[in-house]
């Protein structure tokens, strides 16, 4: 406890870190206030009755979880940040198939600005399609003035709410601490956590032993998730002897390339969930039994498709994040080599082979964690708390919290302070003798 208090004092002493954390908290507060501002022309009594009778395990419960309650309140932030996530997915997929987008990705900062501009335009287009579906299928009965002017106003407000949330996320990334978009999603999830805990453990009449088993299972899932998210395969690297000044020879140094078991982080989960929201919304407009199955979070069609998407996106995002050829070139340029492997192409192939092998168990784990809520539901755990017994919520929370803690720790270490954890180092982050990838 003494070390924790000392760490908080060190954070406060570091002016840049203190300002970044305060700015991040301020922007999060603005985002949360926005989620409580209801669209004009909505009957809140009807919305409250509708939410009381809705199934927390369906599309409403999940989308409301990501929006921090804004979805069920018909808030100006009801669409949340997911349209921007969907637009980002589309742009990244285009980057693999469209030469023009590939060229922009290689143009450095100027290309990044162009891609961000197209992503924003695509976000508006996606909002223009999702907005009417949301208002018509979910809010419909609560609309007081169902006129053309109201629909125009409501659509503009919903689009503006999503764009404002996107802007807040970008400001957190640039001026605050952590990845802004991921933090906003995490904040929305955490906003529902206290009520889920109260519903499952305070108002429940389950036996004490059963409640204890639930808590043990919950913490066990968190610990295993942290283990996999932070897991690293250290690939040994040797550096050739170098001739120092005066003809003296320096001994060869040994280092490691840290290849993470889950190099893609939480992005496969976020991407898969964004893709799943499309057929879930379409299910309200069709009688397809398969699409209707995707609307139920506890059904096997939803969990099967969701698990497959997570595995696919894990490989996809890992391929974007980890570039074996670039790592091999950097090693060769610095006089480094993997013992028993020739520099250049052979080194790149070795790294690619190792990344492919460790990504497979990582992707399977992510998929299994994602479908745990369905098994928790079958075991009799309440729908709201079941969403936190694994699935998207626990993966995003653990991943984002760890990433944010690592960034804070980096600031502290740069100021010669101890880190947040014992020994000043969060397990899984790059050590002093590890090569950056």
What can be said about this structure in brief?
With 437 residues, the chain is mainly alpha-helical. Helix content is 68%, strand content 5%.
What does this structure look like?
- The protein is built from 18 helices and five strands.
- By secondary structure, it is mostly helical.
- The protein has a domain of 160 residues: SecY subunit domain (Preprotein translocase SecY subunit, Orthogonal Bundle), CATH 1.10.3370.
- The chain has a three-stranded antiparallel sheet.
- Strand 2 and strand 3 form a beta hairpin.
- Helix 8 packs across helix 9.
- The longest helix is centred in the last third of the chain and has 34 residues.
- The C terminus is likely disordered.
- One of its GO terms (cellular component) is plasma membrane.
- This is Protein translocase subunit SecY.
- It is found in: Cell membrane; Membrane.
